[in-house]
Amino acid sequence: MGVLAFVCAMPMELRPLRRKLGLERAAVGGISVQSGSLGNRPVVALATGMGTTLATQATVRLLAATAIDHLLVFGITGAVDDDIAIGASVHPELVVDSETGAEHRPTRLGDVASHGTMWTTNRITRPDELPALRARGVISLDMETAAIAACCERRGVPWSVHRAISDRATDGSVDDEVFHLSHQDGTPNPRAVARYFLRHPQRIPGMVTMAKGAKLATERAADAAITAARTLD
Length: 233
Description:
Layout: E1 3-8, H1 11-21, E2 24-28, E3 31-38, E4 41-47, H2 52-65, E5 68-79, E6 89-90, E7 94-97, E8 103-104, E9 117-120, H3 130-135, E10 138-142, H4 145-155, E11 159-168, H5 176-179, H6 190-199, H7 204-230
Parallel strand pairs: 1-4, 1-5, 5-11, 7-9, 9-10
Antiparallel strand pairs: 2-3, 3-4, 5-10, 6-11, 7-8
């Protein structure tokens, strides 16, 4: 059996998968990955960093370094509606690159029903943009999936998406200032966090709530990806 690849953006998304599968740090073709197995299948897992540029670069390197049977994109995603629960799994029928308009259709794994469109964008979506996105069937927002999908399709590698809702675009909890509390590689920026809380102490309870939602979503996304991967045996 060939290698399964699990790809996310941030270390916080990778952490629960690494724990659940007992992955260990390794190198594949000079690339730093987490490595292990799922059943009889070898597994590699990688956090690309945030945004389409870093996602493309990391995925290209990974696909060139080793033969991948299937790539599973997992991690958090933001809802465009209020009626999707925090932690809910998202398995889109379609992923769209907001910059190019390119459409990508993930492989469906197992008996989980696919639904809606995931919108990949490199910027924070404004509330006034949400009605138009809903009208075209968009249910969630992310910053990497379309780029990873494009890399897989160029190499003829099957791919799928297993994300979970961490926040809602409707509540304004994630703006440009909040987005930049992390470095581009997805690790926290302690100085930016400290400055943010000094300027906005009233937002601390909301940030605590958002952190809890993100933690729940990372756990759910890892579980969904592992469950889907088991159907490939």
